[in-house]
């Protein structure tokens, strides 16, 4: 090993550790490593920037806009909601709902699909007395499986395709190259989920459902009487801003609801103060003269809702700027105009003062927010809005524009399939048409693009170049060949699949794919076999994340709302992961080797 190889290997190990421990946002971790490689001279500026001009990465940016236009129409949501309402039995409902959802996931970004349908499924389950946990993990899994069917089904496929065409000068994937493997594993996966997997799923109530049922454990009401010494003073001056274990989330003044409460809000006689946090410490408030605990009002979360506020459930994302800081330090209330009522982690409520909680990816927050919260934050990178317990009326959608967006996507897919356009050209034309026809405004297009994801992909592509240029990928491939060659090519394919899948469970699917593609290409060269087989193996394995909630963002989205624990993913996901691996490897071996 050369010094450069050792240096790059140490950096990659450090990067994997930082990603695993959530030291910072994944895009910032990977970008930091890219900058170090650039400054150290291992990568030239052209090599470091090659990922930012990669066709696959730019195609993903355009797809965000096209998918956003389709999602904006709300037509797919409405169709699937009506379709689900007509279902009666649990097993029949799963088949009826999840088969078309997996088909949608082959052509649309699966993250907004899961975000959209999580509250739909939760409400459907709660109306019928079914635990949402029986449906939400399958929702995530079928979108992952559906995403493996086409080139545009997931960003991972496009990243691998971009590396093949850009870095290695190969032809790359066609639109349906991966369908040879994707369709069989989707069928096998759904059969498993509808039978054995369904029995292994827990019978948990969702976070919001438990909060509604046990509202007395989450909120308490104090009445301001005339003897309160701080009437006419601000919340801050009255000493109600920094209370031990408690958080003033709303003030009810007659028919008015003041939420979120600002430090400058003035306290008046007769105000009803709504607190959340450690309700067991409410005795400290009772010692304040003039504050009386209202025990007979039986106030619940539904009592907090009126024309100006809603209860909304959100899940903190991997790319959130809120992580590593307390809720108070992140200025959550002023930034989002919403108050945090409770925080759940690993299916358990965090029992500490709300403002002192340091948020992590996957945390579920219950917010008291204004009616425009959903509209403002639906595309937020900080969290996924997964439900509103009192969803405000949606803006009236134009069905003609919605059908036009869907039709445009289908036409572009037809052009790509027929070989008229490349995927990049087709999506560029689609975005141009959407902008010219004003179906999507430039501001909306900018909002739909997930720049943190693009930074992660572009930076990771640069690290892949470093692995190839320094010879590190070839060195690792040589070690795998010497170990696996006596066992045969089939064993080597299993090894590549397993390594890629292990990385994607622990870090991110994009980073896993980018790290493994150079190794796969070196392996193909040393074994003197067609590299496409290893490329397909890596693309499928990088997407097939079922064992942990942190490996794939859709798993993270349903984690809190479904009331799941880490063990639930291991119990349900491990058999599925093994089934998908065996099916994939056997098909790949027979088709490409």
Automatic annotation (TrEMBL):
Q: What is this protein called?
A: SLC13 family permease
Among SUPFAM superfamilies, the record links this protein to:
TrkA C-terminal domain-like
The residues that cross the membrane are: 6-21, 28-45, 57-76, 97-121, 141-160, 172-194, 403-436, 448-467, 487-517, 529-552, 572-592
Keywords from UniProt, A to Z, are:
Membrane, Repeat, Transmembrane, Transmembrane helix, Transport
Describe the location of the RCK C-terminal domain by residue ranges: 207-291, 299-383
Q: Where in the cell is it found?
A: Membrane
Q: To which species is this protein native?
A: Virgibacillus siamensis
Q: How does it sit in the membrane?
A: Multi-pass membrane protein
Classification via InterPro entries:
Cit_transptr-like_dom, DASS-Related_Transporters, Na/sul_symport_CS, RCK_C, RCK_C_sf
């Amino acid at each position: 090993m050369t010094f450069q190889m050792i240096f790059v290997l140490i950096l990659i190990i450090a990067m994997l550790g930082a990603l695993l421990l959530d030291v910072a946002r994944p895009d910032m971790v990977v970008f930091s490593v890219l900058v170090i490689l650039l400054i150290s001279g291992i990568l030239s500026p052209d090599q470091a920037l090659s990922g930012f001009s990669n066709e696959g990465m730019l195609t993903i940016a355009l797809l965000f806009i096209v998918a956003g236009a389709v999602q904006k129409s709300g037509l797919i949501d409405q169709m699937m909601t009506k379709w689900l309402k007509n279902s009666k039995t649990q097993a029949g409902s799963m088949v009826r709902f999840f088969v078309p959802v997996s088909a949608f996931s082959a052509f649309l970004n699966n993250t907004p699909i899961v975000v959209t349908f999580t509250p739909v499924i939760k409400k459907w389950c709660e109306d019928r007395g079914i635990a949402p946990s029986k449906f939400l993990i399958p929702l995530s899994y079928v979108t992952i499986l559906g995403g493996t069917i086409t080139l545009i089904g997931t960003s991972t496929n496009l990243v691998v395709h971009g590396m093949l065409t850009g870095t290695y000068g190969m032809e790359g994937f066609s639109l349906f190259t991966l369908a040879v493997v994707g369709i069989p594993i989707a069928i096998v996966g759904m059969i498993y989920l509808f039978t054995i997997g369904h029995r292994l799923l827990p019978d948990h109530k969702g976070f919001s459902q438990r909060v509604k049922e046990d509202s007395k454990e989450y909120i308490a009401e104090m009445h301001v009487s005339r003897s309160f010494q701080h009437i006419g003073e601000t919340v801050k001056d009255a000493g109600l801003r920094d209370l031990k274990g408690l958080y003033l989330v709303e003030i009810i003044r007659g028919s008015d609801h003041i939420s979120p409460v600002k430090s400058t809000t003035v306290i008046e006689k007769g105000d009803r103060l709504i607190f959340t946090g450690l309700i067991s410490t409410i005795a400290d408030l009772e010692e304040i003269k003039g504050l009386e605990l209202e025990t007979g009002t039986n106030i619940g979360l539904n009592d907090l809702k009126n024309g100006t506020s809603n209860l909304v459930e959100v899940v903190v994302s991997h790319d959130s700027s809120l992580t590593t800081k307390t809720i108070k330090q992140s200025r959550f209330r002023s930034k989002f105009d919403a108050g945090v009522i409770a925080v759940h982690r690993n299916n358990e409520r965090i029992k500490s003062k709300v403002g002192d909680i340091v948020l992590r990816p996957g945390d579920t927050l219950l917010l008291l927010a204004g009616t425009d919260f959903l509209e403002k934050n639906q595309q937020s990178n900080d969290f996924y809005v997964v439900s509103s317990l009192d969803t405000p009326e949606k803006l009236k959608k134009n069905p003609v524009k919605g059908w036009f967006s869907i039709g445009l996507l289908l036409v572009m897919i037809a052009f790509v399939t027929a070989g008229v356009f490349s995927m990049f050209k087709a999506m560029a034309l689609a975005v141009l048409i959407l902008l010219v026809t004003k179906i999507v405004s430039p501001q909306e297009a900018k909002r739909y693009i997930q720049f943190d994801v693009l930074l992660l992909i572009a930076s990771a592509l640069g690290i892949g170049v470093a692995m190839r240029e320094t010879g590190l990928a070839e060195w690792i491939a040589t070690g795998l060949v010497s170990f696996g060659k006596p066992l045969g090519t089939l064993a080597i394919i299993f090894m590549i699949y397993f390594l890629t899948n292990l990385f994607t469970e622990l870090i991110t699917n994009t980073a896993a794919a980018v790290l493994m593609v150079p190794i796969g290409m070196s392996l193909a060269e040393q074994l003197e076999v067609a590299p496409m087989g290893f490329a397909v193996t890596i693309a499928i394995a990088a997407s097939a994340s079922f064992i942990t909630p942190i490996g794939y963002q859709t798993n993270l989205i349903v984690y809190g709302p479904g009331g799941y624990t880490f063990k639930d993913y291991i119990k349900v996901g491990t058999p599925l992961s093994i089934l998908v691996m065996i099916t994939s490897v056997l098909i790949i071996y027979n088709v490409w080797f």
